[in-house]
Write a structure and sequence with these properties.
The complex is a heterodimer of chains A (about 110) and B (about 110).
Chain A (H helix, E strand, L loop, with lengths): L4 E3 L2 E4 L5 E6 L6 E7 L6 E7 L2 E5 L6 E5 L5 E5 L8 E8 L7 E2 L3 E5 L1
Parallel strand pairs in A: 2-11
Antiparallel strand pairs in A: 1-3, 3-8, 4-5, 4-9, 5-6, 7-8, 9-10, 9-11
Chain B lengths: L3 E3 L4 E4 L4 E7 L6 E7 L6 E6 L3 E5 L2 E6 L4 E6 L8 E8 L5 E3 L3 E6 L1
Parallel strand pairs in B: 2-11
Antiparallel strand pairs in B: 1-3, 3-8, 4-5, 4-9, 6-7, 7-8, 9-10, 9-11
The chains are: A mainly beta (about 110), B mainly beta (about 110).
Chain lengths: ~110, ~110
């Protein structure tokens, strides 16, 4: 039973660039949420996708956008990267809301 | 006021003792409550979830929920050095958003 998979595992970008992170949910899960985790902090909710639509969004600017595909996989796009975007980006999947979320290993994004 | 608050720790307990981790939340409409364990450099791992007032036990772990006091806790019995990690409390607000606390660092001394 495959868990949540994320790619890439590490990424180094420079300010102003754009990045796309990918996530495949755990088998049987239809809901994908994205989080940003800075060092020493808890994960911060970016947005959640269900049935290919963004259901709710956290306090993140429009530079952060996403997409969910018919197979439930998802992408997180970040434009005009800032130094402050350096963080661990986590994808979590669940079977609809309020159900336990299972996390992937994350993508560590470093902005130079 | 933070939406989900945890004592950052570190909480240090001897091996074999009971570790008690606490969390308070601000949204009275919250309906689901989760505890995650996160080892340094790793992603969060689900340990327990609870939806109703009272206690829920799973092995060495017990989650306790008191909605009237807006309080949720995690007890770890017979603590082991391998339990040393950061424990994250997460609260589902009844919408589609889950809010995490900043975590409590636990050290179990051998």
């Amino acid at each position: 039973d495959a868990g949540v998979t994320q790619s890439p595992t590490h990424l180094i970008k420079t300010r102003g660039q754009q990045v796309t992170l990918r996530c495949s949910p755990k088998s049987g899960h239809d809901t994908v949420s994205w989080y940003q985790q800075a060092l020493g902090q808890g994960p911060q909710f970016i947005f959640q996708y269900y049935e290919e639509e963004e259901r709710q969004r956290g306090n993140f600017p429009d530079r952060f956008s996403g997409h969910q595909f018919p197979n439930y996989s998802s992408e997180l796009n970040v434009n005009a990267l800032l130094l402050g975007d350096s963080a661990l980006y986590l994808c979590a999947s669940s079977l609809n809301r309020d159900q336990p979320q299972h996390f992937g290993d994350g993508t560590r994004l470093s902005i130079l | 006021q933070k939406e989900v608050e945890q004592n950052s720790g570190p909480l240090s307990v001897p091996e074999g003792a009971i570790a008690s981790l606490n969390c308070t939340y601000s949204d009275r409409g919250s309906q689901s409550f989760f505890w995650y364990r996160q080892y340094s450099g790793k992603s969060p791992e689900l340990i327990m979830f609870i939806y109703s007032n009272g206690d829920k036990e799973d092995g060495r772990f017990t989650a306790q929920l008191n909605k009237a006091s807006q309080y949720v806790s995690l007890l770890i019995r017979d603590s082991q050095p391998s339990d040393s990690a950061t424990y994250l409390c997460a609260v589902g607000t009844g919408g589609f958003k889950t809010i995490f606390g900043a975590g409590t660092r636990l050290f179990v001394k051998a």
